[in-house]
Predict the structure.
Amino acid sequence: MLTTTDPRTGTVTDTVLDATAPEQTDAVVRAAQAAFDELATRDRGWRAGLLDALADALDADRAALVEVADRETGLGPARLDGEVSRAAFQFRLFAEAVREGGYLEAAIDHGGQTALGPAPEIRRLLVPIGPVAVFGSSNFPFAFSVAGGDTASALAGGNPVVLKAHSSHLETSARSFAVLSAAASAYGAPDGVLGIVYGTGAGGALVSHPLVRAVGFTGSLGGGQALMDLIARRDEPIPFYGELSSLNPLVITPGAAAARGGEIADGLFGSFTLGSGQFCTKPGIAFVPNGADGDALVAHLVERTTDAAASVLLNARIATSFDEIRDRLVADGAVELLARGGSGADAAGAAAGFTAAGFTAAPTVLGVAARDITAEVAEEAFGPLVVVARYDTDADIFVALDAVPDSLTATVHSEPAEADAVNALVARLAPRVGRLVFDGYPTGVRVSWAQHHGGPWPATNSQHTSVGVSAIRRFLRPLAYQDAPESVLPAELRDDFRGIPRRVDGVLQLA
Amino acid sequence: MLTTTDPRTGTVTDTVLDATAPEQTDAVVRAAQAAFDELATRDRGWRAGLLDALADALDADRAALVEVADRETGLGPARLDGEVSRAAFQFRLFAEAVREGGYLEAAIDHGGQTALGPAPEIRRLLVPIGPVAVFGSSNFPFAFSVAGGDTASALAGGNPVVLKAHSSHLETSARSFAVLSAAASAYGAPDGVLGIVYGTGAGGALVSHPLVRAVGFTGSLGGGQALMDLIARRDEPIPFYGELSSLNPLVITPGAAAARGGEIADGLFGSFTLGSGQFCTKPGIAFVPNGADGDALVAHLVERTTDAAASVLLNARIATSFDEIRDRLVADGAVELLARGGSGADAAGAAAGFTAAGFTAAPTVLGVAARDITAEVAEEAFGPLVVVARYDTDADIFVALDAVPDSLTATVHSEPAEADAVNALVARLAPRVGRLVFDGYPTGVRVSWAQHHGGPWPATNSQHTSVGVSAIRRFLRPLAYQDAPESVLPAELRDDFRGIPRRVDGVLQLA
């Protein structure tokens, strides 16, 4: 029997679900495979319509979805309402991409004489791969869970999706699934286009199932590693797309500290405490120059943090881990405890509806000299904690970056007069991250065509992304037709088709 | 000490190379990493010029390269000369792709108000990943080895390459490397942009090295699995791009057997014996209809095969494995031995310069009922062997396809009047392969923009390809810039740049 807990109160919610039995998981995957065969008979326009219908269904059930997710995650109605919008937007963005068709990467090389002699005609496009397993995350009950970007991008590509519900928001998962399934069914989608399983064992059975063709996962490094170990034991390897762990260094130049230290302290406070610090893009280390300007910035950050109330974390595991990492770092003497909020926790907490038995975290600022940073100091604390690393020169920053793992993002706050120094800094940061942020904050990831959400290991283990339109590429493979009769070709590869961008004889052509 | 053997005579060649010691492998990879940092300062035009210079250098050393490769592989001067042309062509094709710039997948989303509120500006392109390990194949001493497509595509993306020379053509590898290295150096490329190691141990050290960022491999399923096991033990996972094993089913419809059975028998004979059957695209199973037309086709194939001389295989391991698989199948009674050539082997072999001590194979045709096919019957015999599978209906073919592994290619020979049946057949074949060939043969893979060379496991383990322009995508990762000052941006992402295709605010724009 599986249950979830209200993180504000620590009480178990009423919802009780059975863990999915192995034979049931097998049946769900087989239904997905049957749906895959059926999906192959529908065209892009049909599939875009399905994605729009799923977006509409999320919007229509918004109030109920937010209510149940708030009870299971404590993230608050405003944030959750925004997240439903984000999830619906993702389905609609992929619908747009599917209609536009560039994602097919269609290419035609006509036959004839070439530099290497006579050559056949080759026509290629990307095709779906089959059932995709998607693991919901703890921290985004909508946008990276059942109704999330992995689901939307896999479906957009023409693949059925089997979801593994995250254990800390089972009812949100079940409701999201019910909403999406009903909408898919009403639209005329084949049974099995969406499936769901519950429980850790079912998750393992899913990634080990021979018919599953790829896995999307957003979660902890340990969880990701466990799934990768299962995949390594499969007869047939499949891609694992994991979004795992990230420190997201943020560098404040001397010029920026001097010009707008207070403003940056406010922004940094807002970013590292947003969503109780439970974002994979949370800035975990801030490099602040030594000297009076840096001191003032840190003092401002300390003041904001000390005054702040405790906030609620998603579940007991996250809360325990957060406390352990913080306490170990401080006890080791590796870092200095600069600020710890939560003094008004009881009052603020009561006002927010959570109790001493809930999962709370006090916003925390730790301090260290940049040159003293080790991998241990830099262990990602999932929650509202930032390490302030003080530096004299950029060389100190580079020493620290060499000591810590790579990240999804790096951020630079600077002034225009420092352009040369910024270029030198960026040259050192770029190889370590997937996204470079300037004079802003890494949290609040825009969903758009150009966006992506990857970075060197352990940020992700892939050269792909779970955010933005190119996320669809993870669930597609190339298929080529050599000298095919036109009746065999997909519409998009026929000579008279002009509806999508294509590369013809090496030349890119617009629709 | 490492040596190679002349496959025509079985005598060890004069060349003796030392296996690369672990500390030497480490030094080669470190040099590659240093070159990577230096390459980041060169632009696309420079890199395209490097690729052209490498192509020119191959052409200039053509005669010597062919001579040494012929001695080590027995593939013959004509084929090897063509393969040098193919290798040079690949470098030039990637130069063209690098200049064109579409491979960067540049995208710009301007900032502003969106459906989800105010959003930052995001600009993205693909960037190189770092040192790439490339394992040379046995069967393509140029086009899939030191001077092959993995090398060309990795370099095209801006990545240094460390090669692992194939053990059966060490001198060809060394000479190819010397030619490419000298050309790179003369062009002004940094030391370390190309490196090479020799010996199985060095290959293992290479894929385990923390600075290596991806592995390209063309070879056996066993060899690929061994490398994947090493990669699974790394602290940091990296992509493994393997081209491994493929049966390449070829289906002859009743109409095609009736209309041009003899012609197809000739074409099939040419395809399964080309290069002594040592192609990953060799048709390993041919489905032939039962009845008089099919009988006549098979009789013609048997006649061609029985009359054919034995041919030389690449090395002792391949020759031994070929004999073992053939003998086991026949001894089991699982298949019938329909034809075995090589009766004129002594005379033809002597004329071709090879002796009884060389590694020879007799072209072989085995027969079986399609419904009796098992995975064992379908074990890939690397060499001139084809299994003829007789069928009554397409359902017999589908039963057989379910029993055998997926492939790089499938081929259909049919007549225009059979369009409906062909569509039904293609619907069943397409999920199992990467390329569908019509009324032709899968050997002779065109190198072009639209081409690719992948397929479901065990054909390859990836959704990418080692042939054609899109092979470059394997060695790139996305990097995004959020609200970046223009001085930080690569030229290709600046507003006033128009030199490459880009997607701006979701709309694809030509250069």
In short: The CA atoms of residues 482 and 510 of chain A lie 23 Å apart. Chain A is about 40% helix and 20% strand. Chain A has a mean pLDDT of 94.
